[in-house]
Specification:
This protein is α+β, with helices and mostly antiparallel strands and 418 residues long. It contains 16 helices and 12 strands. A hairpin with a 7-residue loop joins strand 1 and strand 2. Helix 6 runs antiparallel to helix 8, helix 6 crosses helix 16 and helix 12 packs parallel to helix 16.
């Protein structure tokens, strides 16, 4: 089963995590784009919501932050205001609060600063591929895609290398908290009320907070002021500082999102190479890399949707979205919109004017790590293409059980070295 040939019947339950175990239900998204682009969607786990599936509508609404707020949560699941306050990150805030937090760390993720990591990422990729390609058959998600973002995360946050596998394991438990392969506390299959004040409603949030607190105490004792974590603790221009709770949530967000999104972009890119053999030869040419990273990230769409909440009534396509309604922007649908992309079910590394939604374009919440993701994807695939003469699937790949994170968690491949 692959997203190249969607197998859903066009009427998949978008609220069910089980639906996405075979990849995003693209036949359902295509039908909704044609017939009902602003669709009232039933949700057995809570309040119903609107599904927005066309790229143009998503861009317009995502830009309209006066009407569509992030400050009620960004996931489908409902939560009380008390839970929201305990679990929120700067992703779940509106202006001016969002920008006050963002500006503290924006420089560390800016294009010029990230460009300085080029040589270091190249070295990491060489080491990772030396080991992964020493055999002819392997799981590309585990041996390649998982390794690079994990190791870069440690460098950017200033974390001990020996701690990284544990941190990634906990990050998986957070962001893939609906997949039993990653957590013992599956969100929709058991009561997780005792963790309702933790990030992502997960006990891993508590463990990560303890780790972060101990780490910062060690750094302070050693006089170490390097890394993004130190920056987020500094006073803002108004003299404000983040609370202990906010720091915990920010750390959890960096560990989870900073690792998983790039991992699943790399995995999806390798999957694409298996199904479109011409990509391998194209990747050997330098001129393709001005456009290729964004196309691979469009193809991957690691975040399947983001939620907003209507702050006032709003009409779209003859439907009245009422104040207080949940609204889901389905990035995974917008990134396959035939009106926005020519041949959206093919990877076109030379695609121009690629207005994909994977970085949250069209609003103030654009992905903080987009320059790092682009750099990691570019360097990894450039290095991989140089080393291969052929790559093919060597078994069925498996997707996460999640309607929030779209990722290939297992990708068996067979290769021939160049």
């Amino acid at each position: 089963m692959t997203v190249w040939n969607p197998t859903d019947d066009g009427y998949a339950d978008l609220s069910s995590h089980d639906t996405f175990e075979k990849g995003a239900p693209h036949n359902t998204f295509a039908r909704l784009r044609r017939e009902d682009p602003v669709s009232w969607t039933e949700y057995n786990g809570g309040e119903n919501y609107w599904s927005i599936t066309r790229q143009a509508d998503i861009l317009e609404m995502n830009h309209n932050t006066a009407v569509f707020s992030s400050a009620r949560g960004i996931r489908m699941e409902d939560q009380s205001y008390e839970e929201y306050l305990a679990r929120r990150t700067f992703q779940e805030t509106d202006a001016p609060e969002h920008m006050m937090t963002r500006i503290k760390v924006a420089k560390a993720f800016s294009k010029p600063v990230i460009a300085q990591f080029d040589d270091e990422i190249t070295k990491l990729c060489d080491d990772i591929l030396d080991e992964a390609l020493s055999v002819d058959s392997f799981d590309a998600t585990k041996t390649i895609a998982r390794q690079l973002p994990m190791q870069m995360l440690g460098r950017i946050l200033g974390l001990p290398e020996e701690d990284l596998p544990w941190l990634v394991e906990k990050g998986d438990a957070l962001i893939a908290n609906t997949d039993p392969d990653f957590t013992d506390h599956v969100l929709d299959k058991m009561s997780t009320d005792e963790f309702r004040m933790m990030p992502f409603n997960s006990p891993a949030g508590a463990e990560l907070f303890v780790y972060a607190k101990e780490l910062m105490a060690k750094k302070e004792a050693a006089g170490d002021t390097s890394g993004v974590l130190h920056m987020i603790l500094q006073e803002g221009k108004d003299g404000s500082t983040i609370t202990e709770e906010e720091f915990r949530n920010f750390f959890c967000l960096l560990v989870a999102a900073g690792n998983d999104t790039t991992r699943y972009s790399i995995a999806a890119g390798i999957q694409a190479m298996c199904h479109q053999p011409e990509l391998l030869e194209q990747m050997k040419h330098a001129d393709i890399w001005a456009t290729a990273p964004d196309e691979i990230i469009r193809w991957a769409t690691p975040a399947l949707y983001f939620r907003r909440t209507a702050m006032q009534d709003y009409e779209a396509h003859g439907k009245l979205i009422r104040e207080g309604d949940k609204v889901l922007y389905w990035w995974s649908s917008g990134n396959r919109d035939e009106e926005a992309f020519d041949a959206p079910f093919r990877v076109n590394l030379a695609r121009q004017n690629n207005k994909h939604l994977s970085f949250g374009q069209g609003g103030p919440h654009v992905c903080l790590g987009m320059w790092l993701a682009r750099l990691e994807v570019r360097v990894l695939f450039q290095a991989l293409a140089k080393r291969l003469s052929h790559i093919e699937a060597d078994g069925e790949h498996k997707f996460l059980r999640s309607n929030f994170v779209g990722g290939i968690k297992s990708l068996p491949v067979r290769i021939k070295r160049a």
